[in-house]
Amino acid sequence: MKYYILFGPPGAGKGTQAKLMVDKYNFRHVSTGDLLRSEIAKETELGKKAKALIEAGNLVDDSTVVKMIESEIDNNPSVKGFLFDGFPRTTAQAEQLDKMLEKRGNKIEKVISFIIDDKKVFERIKHRAEIENRKDDAEPATIQNRINTYHCKTEPLIGYYKKCDKYFEINGDGEIDEIFARVIKLL
Ligand code: ADP
Question: pTM surpassing 0.90?
Fold first, then answer.
């Protein structure tokens, strides 16, 4: 079982690349954002708690997302591997993920980090707002809050994964196929 992390700011193209990787490698794509949005749509207790946080562009608490990831791993024993998208987003999440995998005799293979500047991210999310109708994509202030949250809380993970030689960067700017070719080369 292989575990990969797709890393980068909101709007970096992690979800788009994950779909292409699933088609080619038969991995399971696990997006904590998608899982949370599905809880919101189903109006579960978890979804009700997460809704306001997500719509304001703030992070959902670590224990909630860690539990979601753990059940994804345990409920899919026969897949070739996992692509985590949007997880981990804090150092606490990364530490808990390591423990979770260690308990199961596994580890993270690689962290694939999509490099793209804030201005491009902002433009991409504004464009996505016209297509996907996500509340957290609609307001410039919310988009900016998510970008700031990424810099403060998620970016420190770069150091965390560099320390164990698992961190790999690719240029996240360009055409989708062009970026996918970079991903394939790295894998
Ligand atoms: P994007 O990549 O555009 O930020 P996501 O779908 O990954 O979109 O995340 C949407 C929102 O869901 C985040 O802004 C956050 O509120 C919540 N979320 C997703 N993943 C996590 C996580 N690992 N930890 C905490 N909150 C999360």
Answer: yes
